[in-house]
Amino acid sequence: MLFGKKRPYSHPVQEEAKSLYPVLHVAGSLKDYQRELVKKEVASLWELSQVGASFSGVLEEGDQFQEKLQGLGATFSSISLAAEQFGQVRGEIAMAVSDARSQMEALGHTSVQVQQSYESMAETFANLEAAIKGIQITMGKIVSIADQTNILAINASIEAARAGAEGRGFSIVATQVKKLAEEIKELTGEVDSGVNDVQDRANELSQSIAESQQTLGQGTGIVTQAEESFGKITAAADGAVDVQDGITGVIGESQMELQTLCQFFDQIKQQYQKVVTHIRSASRLGTTKSAMFEDMDNMISQLPPLIRDLESDS
Amino acid sequence: MKQFYGMSQRGNLDEALQGLSHPQLIMLLSNKEQFERHVAELEERFPGVPSIGCIGMCYQTGIVENGVGVIAFSDGVSAAANVLENASTMPVKYIQRMEQDLQAVGGSDRDTVCIDFCSGNDACVLTTIYTALRQRGISLVGGTGDQGCVSANGRIYQDAVAYALVHNQNGRVKTYKENIYHQLGNHRFIAAATDRTNYILGTLNGKSAKQVYKDILHVSDQEILTRTFKNPFGKINGDDTCIISIKDVRGSALACFRQVNDSDILILLELGDYRAIVQDTIRQICTDFPRRSAVFSVNCLFRYKLFSEQGYMQNYLRDMSALGNHAGFVGYGEHYNNRFVNQSMTCVVFE
What we know:
The complex is a heterodimer of chains A (314) and B (351).
Chain A: H1 21-163, H2 168-300, H3 303-313
Helix pairs in contact in A: 1-2
Chain B: E1 2-8, H1 13-17, E2 25-30, H2 35-45, E3 51-55, E4 57-59, E5 63-64, E6 68-74, E7 77-84, H3 95-105, E8 112-118, H4 122-133, E9 139-144, E10 146-152, E11 155-158, E12 161-168, E13 173-178, E14 181-183, E15 189-192, E16 200-201, E17 203-204, E18 207-208, H5 209-217, H6 221-227, E19 233-237, E20 240-244, E21 246-250, E22 253-256, E23 265-271, H7 274-288, E24 294-300, H8 301-309, H9 313-320, E25 326-331, E26 334-336, E27 339-341, E28 345-350
Parallel strand pairs in B: 2-3, 8-9, 24-25
Antiparallel strand pairs in B: 1-6, 2-6, 3-10, 4-5, 4-25, 7-12, 8-12, 9-26, 10-11, 13-28, 14-23, 15-17, 15-23, 16-22, 17-18, 19-20, 19-23, 21-22, 24-28, 26-27
Helix pairs in contact in B: 3-4
C-alpha cells in the first residue's frame, strides 16, 4: 500500500489524548454560530420591518397620488369646459363672419344698383338737355315770329296811316297778323309740350334720384350692418383670447399638477429602491445563514463519530 | 521575508532544492509516484523544519505537471505545520493542535495566514479549521491535492488536512479570491433534493437540475461536463459567490465538485473577460501592497485546463510574475477562509 509504511521522522507523531475537548469545541463553535445567527436574525427582522415601513410609505404616497389624480381630473374637466367655450366662441366667430360675408355681398349688389341708377340719371339728364334745346329752338322761332309780327304791325300802322280809308291793305296785314298769331298759338302749344316734356324728365330725374337715395340708403344700412358684424367678430375674437388665456392658465395648472405627479413618482421610486435594498439585504442575510447552516451541519455531523470514538476507548 | 521556488520537471527533489537554505516553512508539490520518497527526502534534508505537502502541479514562470516543486519561506517568518486527521468524519478531534500552533506562532489577522493542503471532504474540514482561525480573525488560503493524501512534517496522511500557520514578522499579509465568472441572465435557483455527502444537486426550483441546466444552455448530457468550464454554478453567500463545478450527470441530478445543501441559493455563471479580471486582481494587489515580498496562489485545475485550452496559461503566469515573487500550485478545489470553491484562484500576499 502506497502510504501504509510509516517511517520515523524528526517531528514527533502526536497521539491525541482522549478528551472531551473536541466536543466542547464543537459546542463552543455552535454557540458562536448561534450568537451569529441571532444577530443575523435580528438584522433580518430589522430589514423586514424596514421593508414594511417602506411599503407603508409607498401606500401613503399612493393615497396622495390618488388625490393628485383626482385634482388632475378636475383640471382636465376645466380644460374640457374651456375647450367647449372655445368651440362656442369659434361658432360665434364663424356666424359673424358668415353674416359679414352676406352683408358684403349685399353691399356689392347695392353698389351695382347705385351705378345703374346713376347711369339712368345720366340718360335722363341727356334727354332733359335735348328737351331744353327744343324749347330754346322753339323760343327762337317765337322771337323771330314776334319780330316779324312787330314789323308787320309797324307796316300796318304805316299803311293805315297813309291810306287811312283804304282798309284793304290793313286787312292784308291783319290777315298776316292772324296767321302769325296762329303760328304763335301753335308754337306756344309746342312750348307747352316742351315744358311738359321737361317736367316729365324732371320727374323722371327726381324719381331716379329718389331711387338712388334709396339704394344708397340701403347701402348705408348694409355698411352699418357690416360694421356691426365686424364688431361682433372683434368681440368674438376678444372672447377667444379670453378663452385661450383660460386654457393657457388651466394648462399651466395641469403642468404643475404633472410636475407634482412626477415628484410623486420619484418619491415612489425612492421608496421602492429602499424596499429593494432591504429585500436584497434580507436575501443576503438569508444566503449567509444558509452558509452558516452548512457550517453548523458540518460541525454537528462530527459529534456522532467523536462520541463513538470516545466510547470505543472507554 | 523571502519566498523560494525550486522545481524539477524530472521529479528530482535535489534539483528542486538547489539554492534553498535556512527555510522556515517548506511546501512540497510532488507526483503520485514519488510523493512518499520526496516527503521522506525532504524531511531528511531539512529535519525539524515545518513542512506540508501534497500531490499536485506547481508553477512559477512555467507549469511543472509531473515533476516536483518546492516553495519555501525564510527570513522574517515564524511558522508551524501540522495536520488534522479524520478529515471526512471528525477533524475537530484534532483542533487543539491548531489552537496550540496558533498560540505558538503568535501573530494577528494583520500578519498571519493559514495555508492548507487537504486530501478531500474539504467543506467539513474548512468549517472546522475556521472555528479556530476566526477567534483571531486569521485568513486561510489553500487547496485540495490529488490522490487523497497530504503530508505534514515528513509524514504522509490520508483523509487529512495539512496546514501551515505563517506569521510574517516584517509586514502585513492579505488573502484574495479571484472569480472570472459573472451571473448569466437573472436565473436564481433554490437547491433541493441534495445529497451533501455525495455532492449531489437534485433539483433547482423544483425541476430536475440536469434539465434546468440543459434547457438554459441548450446542451446535451454529454456536453454538460465540458460546459462547466464556461458555465459553472455559483452559490450565493452574502456578497460572495462560491463557484461550484459540475462533475457528472446522475440520472436527472447533477454531481458537483462541492457540497450543495437544500435551500442554498444558486445562480448560473458565465465566463467573463478573464484576461481583464486577472489584470484587475494584479492592480488591486499592487494598490494594497506597493511593496510585496511574495505571492503564493492556488489555481483550480479547471482554470489551468481552460487557460491552457485558450493558450493563455503561459501568459497568465507571465502576467502574475509582474507581482514579483509569485508561485503556487494547481488544486482540485480552492480554499478561501471557511469556503471551499471551484474554478477560482486564491492567493496570499506577503508584504
